[in-house]
Amino acid sequence: MTTVALYARVSTKDKGQSTENQLPELRRFAQAHGYSIYKEYVEQESGGTGRRSEFQALFADAHQRRFDLVLFWSLDRFSREGALPTLQYLNQLQGWGVGYKSLTEQYLDSVGLFQEAIISILATLAKQERIRLSERTKAGMARRKAEGIHIGPPVKSSIIVEQIQKLKYSGLSNYAVAKKLGISASTVAKYYIP
């Protein structure tokens, strides 16, 4: 018998909505297919992050293979983090031998006819999302550089560099110098010229 985990979520911004709109249908589907329900993971949090308590618990239990399939209402109820993170979640489940199924999107089924096509589409969207993010980051950095804003870690003043040199010449370790000046030991190593 297939054991399923039910995942239901509404955003805190979805006023008037309740997971009780999703759960009865998910339960009915599981019962109609003869699935045994392991647990219901229910939360009222934004899907814009994976740092949701029930979502994390779902993945911890999936890693332990406590169920065979995750059943959710729709992909946007499962995650709203974008194509790349969502694809990574689905791949992670499959890597653990756990399938997934969207109740309202028949094509989104890890064992369905269109599984490879859907994964391919999601992977393509994820790649485009990654490219767009990289382009936006580079454009933002170029704009800030053109405005004369330093990009990267802050440059230490000549006074700090002199203090590092003096303390190091006195025989102190990088850690001791760092502690004395309130900076990191890696910064001491970077600016110390023997």
Automatic annotation (TrEMBL):
<dbReference type="GO" id="GO:0003677">
    <property type="term" value="F:DNA binding"/>
</dbReference>
<keyword id="KW-0233">DNA recombination</keyword>
<dbReference type="Pfam" id="PF00239">
    <property type="entry name" value="Resolvase"/>
</dbReference>
<dbReference type="InterPro" id="IPR006119">
    <property type="entry name" value="Resolv_N"/>
</dbReference>
<keyword id="KW-0238">DNA-binding</keyword>
<dbReference type="GO" id="GO:0000150">
    <property type="term" value="F:DNA strand exchange activity"/>
</dbReference>
<dbReference type="InterPro" id="IPR036162">
    <property type="entry name" value="Resolvase-like_N_sf"/>
</dbReference>
<dbReference type="InterPro" id="IPR050639">
    <property type="entry name" value="SSR_resolvase"/>
</dbReference>
<protein>
    <submittedName>
        <fullName>Resolvase</fullName>
    </submittedName>
</protein>
<feature type="domain" description="Resolvase/invertase-type recombinase catalytic">
    <location>
        <begin position="3"/>
        <end position="148"/>
    </location>
</feature>
